[in-house]
Design brief:
The protein has about 240 residues and is mainly α. It has 11 helices and 2 strands; from the N terminus they run ααββααααααααα. It starts with a helix and ends in a 5-residue tail after the last helix.
Length: about 240
Amino acid sequence: MIIQAKRSGFAAAVTRGVYETLRRRKPGGARLWERTNHAGRTVDLCAGPAAAVGVLAGLPALPPRARGAAALAIATAAACGAYDDHAGTADPRRGFRAHLAALRNGEVTTGAVKLFGIGAAALAAGAVLRRDPVDKVLAGVVIAGSAHLVNLLDVRPGRAAGAVLALGLIGAAPAPVGAAAALLKDDLAARTMLGDTGAHALGAGLGTAVVARNGRTGLALHAAALVAVALVMEVKSPQSG
């Protein structure tokens, strides 16, 4: 518990430091970092990269290959999210079906990049983190599904960060907990937003923690639940997520 608290605190400190630095400097100009939220308020995207760096900084002390695999999944999830945050803002299409339909017509959307990029990185990480072929696939589904779940929740201020805090405390995921805690106040106040960058990074961090702490039964249950949520949201809200 002490080690987890230290890692959570370190992740929180790194996240806050990166966040404050980005808010002051806004590399590339303020317009690159500003968005309009659901209430019509101008917020910044500084929380997203800060969350990603914080989660990576707070990764547990795993063997080098396993740590590298977890870092790959989290960094790829954040990178794909950042691409969508900056290149996909004008695209109204949401949901897997819309992006796969566009892909069948020869158009590669930012949503398709996220789907295949995060999925491939998650499966690659699962292949390193687990030994059995079935467990490798389940691990990949859990990591990718967790990234997608947190992104689905990021529709109102504080919702995704609050969910990460709750799920991370239950699942013993200190790095995502610390990163989310460092940003929750500003997120709730609608000064910043996680965006796809932060949501996917936090979710992938949760997923890697689940993989590290569960056997096949646990992985299978988590994977089934995540797939079920994704399918329900796809059917009920095909234009969101």
